[in-house]
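Example (one chain per record):
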Amino acid sequence: MREWFNRTGGTVRLQPCLLLFALAACARLAYLVVFHPSLDSAYWTISAHLARTGSLAVNGAPVTDYEPLYLVFLAAARTLAGDRVVLVQIFQIGVASLGAIYMYRLTLALAGSPRAATIGGVLFALHPLLIRQASAASDLSLVTTLLVAFAYAFVSIRSAAGAAVAGVWIGLAVLTRSMTLPVLAGGVAVLIASRRTALAVPLAVAALLLIAPYVARNHLVSGSWWPTRGGINLYIGNSPYTAALLPAHDLDLLQEPAYAMVERERPDLHADAPGYAAEVDTFLNRRALGYMMERPLRTLREKVMNIGYLLSPYLVPLHIATADTRVAIDGHGGAGVEHSRARPVVEVVAHAAATAFVLLTAVPGMYVRRRLLTQDAILWCIAATFVGVNAVYVPASRYAAPMIFVLLFYSGVALSGLSRGTR
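Predicted structure:
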């Protein structure tokens, strides 16, 4: 079967989709074989307990720091793979490679050009950042595929059923990364602005039906409506020591000093108390907001720089934290990092070349579609969400992965020389 039905009313050829999936999978498998990335992380630890007991907990204590979907994926993959790490990574690579298919379909739906769609799919399959994240201990590859699928479903909405399908995709994305919730609000706003208000209802309802049980569970367990790691993320991105580490070092190194500060200044908080995670989250949020409001101009300057870090060809952070890496704080706003390791040169060069290429080709693509940007509104909502959230929180090149497909779409349009508006 060489074609399948597309909700836009036409057909999509199966052959290029399969070839793009194979290209993406081969590139990601090659990276896995050469670099042997580790899955050792908090995600891996929690998923082990989930696979054994069916509950989100560590050492018997319920966990509310993380969204559930990636943990569920890891637990299911571990069960199927017999707990063999490489097989779990291959499963993750398979899910990540599906993004190339949805990239093709999204570009075809918007630009109407098989050539642009093929180029966009190839760029997605071979982008170094997406290749690296596919087998990493991170939820970014999963949320990337979910967002591309959502974008395709959204631009293909023709009925209430189509809107509900798009709602399911964005609901799953929020269950993987809660920071994608503004994309749901953006999608509703786009439908209302385009006078399709009736379709906004099934979109929102389908998404909220998926999200609501997770939100209720978090609140029952910790008293917090959202993941209780938001405070630590806001603090390490907005502390007296943040500027000293950026852009060379990973801000996660500031987590240990942050929790030490909590123990020192809030001795009344006990780790075994039911509301401990939410109390710590609130404390760190207040500390971070206080630092930001203390000098607004400094904060604004830092946020602008964060946007540059996120989109820059410069790989952020440039150094990798190892088991021996420590941050040394002098108590006067200064901080230094000891025993970090520089990233491989090939990784730095590949990221710089790929990012520079995409930026240089995406801008002409935006110009080609300058009269059709309203059709691309959901893409801009996705990009704005990631730029805004990562500017406020923690800037790192890896966090651009779930939105990079937006730039790749415009690169495909520019490189193909075709779009629906110029054909």
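Caption: Residues 3-227+344-416 form one domain.
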